[in-house]
Amino acid sequence: MGVTGPRIRVVIADDEPLIRAGIRMILTSDAAIDVVAEATNGREAVELARSHAVDVVLLDIQMPEMDGLSALAELRRTVPAARVIILTTFGERENVLRALEHGGAGFLLKDTAPAELIRAVRAAAAGDAYLSPAATRHVVDQLATGRAAARADEARRRVGVLSERERNVLALLGEGLSNADAGKRLHMSEATVKTYVSRILAKLDCENRVQAALLARDAGL
């Protein structure tokens, strides 16, 4: 692969020599990439990035003295021009999101194919973010989980205005019971249940019992 512009200056940070050697071998197979230094911990990575004016830093998450995520935060503060890619054997979703929240330019698992590693470094150097397909799935799953959690929190807050009896009626709406069936379950007349339902809809600002039933589900009733 020919060089069409300035070489991409890279620091590799990993406490395992064999991992660093493998990454170096992969990256230096691309004529556009120059591995200028290697670090054995996050603190060294920050110091080397400062002194070598690097374009991209590859950071392992699990390192002594200063882990990858802490080093990422320090790099964003002190060497903002350096683009940081988190490289790890761990696929936990929270690490992906934390890396992105701290300004990471990418997240790759260590079993990433060599060609993908090179693409990620090139993309980061060009100012783009790069997530491996596996990391992207983690992010999507986590965001979906986060939205569900946010809905549950909001539903529980809204349901908190109800009395215990009203919550019991709402729970049965969530199960899809009619007023008559709910009355039998709660030993109440159908008319009484209907009154409770009207009161619940007003308190929860729901237009109909379907909305109330969904709210009951989100609240975990």
UniProtKB/TrEMBL annotation:
Pfam families noted in UniProt: GerE, Response_reg
Domain HTH luxR-type: 155-220
GO molecular function, one term: DNA binding
Membrane spanning stretches: none
Keyword Phosphoprotein: yes
InterPro entries documented for this protein: CheY-like_superfamily, NreC/VraR/RcsB-like_REC, Sig_transdc_resp-reg_receiver, Tscrpt_reg_LuxR_C, WalR-like
Keyword Cell membrane belongs to the record: no
Keywords per UniProt: DNA-binding, Phosphoprotein, Transcription, Transcription regulation
Regions annotated as coiled coil: none
PTM annotation (4-aspartylphosphate): residues: D60
Response regulatory domain location: 9-125
Protein name per its UniProtKB record: DNA-binding response regulator
